Amino acid sequence: MPMPFRFSLCLALSFALSALHAADPKPAAKTSANGPKWKALKPQTPAGFTLKTLEVAQYPEHTVELYVYVPDAAGTWPCILDIHGGGWKARQVEADKPMMERLAQRGFVTAIVSYRLSTEAKYPAALHDCKAALRCLRAHAQELKIDPERIGCMGGSAGGHLSGLTAMTTGLPEFEGEGPFKDQSSGVKACIVMAATQDLIAANAGKKNEGAVLFFGTSADENPGLYKAASPITHVRAGVPSTIFIEGEKDSLKVGRAEMMEKLKGLGIETDVHTLKDAPHPFWMSDPWCAETVDIAAAFFKKHLGEPVLK
């Protein structure tokens, strides 16, 4: 078995097994013979920031929360919402914290949403939670020092799917759900998708992907309309936000990305793809790829969201 394939398979199995016995699993460290070691980073709230927890919504199965890195200094900041990965079934908030801590230090308020997982509620619950989280950020904008007009989103793997879907459905009321803060907008001005499928029909037709079936409650062949409606590529249209893609060289979760980029380009919407050398699937959780991801994300979001306004 070739080493890149064996490495990817080991990571996938590690993710699946950890989801069964940990509330916030972290992928095990692996070593690639063809590149840097993969080793999970540990979160540490940076100096000059306070980590705040906000309740978005309470459900019997889960309380949706936001974990927000707020600068201690006075001023107003652009904001980035991160949507964590984990196959829609594992809560990987802790694994995404190092990336969002570093982005906060680049001049943003950063936040991570703990949406309802597929083991707790079927789609579209997760999407509705992401939308509610954006509305919550705006409702608490003054407290969190956020400019409500300058918010973007990003996510990796399952979170990349949800990030792309959140962005592409900006302005479509049928995707809002019944969550709180309905007087606020859930729109985003810019989006980053990391290592994520954007066309769920192309990825799942003729297959019974256990993770997708758990998330949707059905297969793509049994309900193709549902899978199509949940595919970010379906909703590309004039007015959707600029969207870029970050991928690992050794990752294969990119179905629909090229086609989605063509649709965006055809509409004159900014898009691009960045492929990180030797990077495996969860590249944003380990250096050197986390550092590379932060460089790309900071430059992109500064272009579209701007700089903080200090007092």
Describe the structure in your own words.
This protein is an alpha/beta fold. α2 (93-104) packs across α10 (289-305) and α3 packs across α5 (158-168). The chain has helices at 3-21, 93-104, 125-139, 141-144, 158-168, 200-204, 210-216, 224-229, 257-266, 289-305; strands spanning 49-58, 63-71, 75-83, 109-114, 146-156, 190-194, 242-248, 271-276, 309-310. β3, α2 (93-104) and β4 (109-114) form a beta-alpha-beta unit. The chain is globular, with a radius of gyration of 18 Å. The longest helix is centred in the first third of the chain and has 19 residues, at 3-21. It is built from 10 helices and 9 strands. It has one domain: Alpha/Beta hydrolase fold, catalytic domain (Rossmann fold), CATH 3.40.50. Residues 1-29 have low confidence and may be disordered. Strands 1, 2, 3, 4, 5, 6, 7, 8 and 9 form a 9-stranded mixed beta sheet that branches.
Present the secondary structure layout.
Layout: H1 3-21, E1 49-58, E2 63-71, E3 75-83, H2 93-104, E4 109-114, H3 125-139, H4 141-144, E5 146-156, H5 158-168, E6 190-194, H6 200-204, H7 210-216, H8 224-229, E7 242-248, H9 257-266, E8 271-276, H10 289-305, E9 309-310
Parallel strand pairs: 3-4, 3-5, 5-6, 6-7, 7-8
Antiparallel strand pairs: 1-2, 2-4, 3-9
Helix pairs in contact: 2-10, 3-5
Would you summarize the structure shown here?
The chain is built from ten helices and nine strands. The chain has 311 residues and is an alpha/beta fold. It is globular and about 55 Å long.
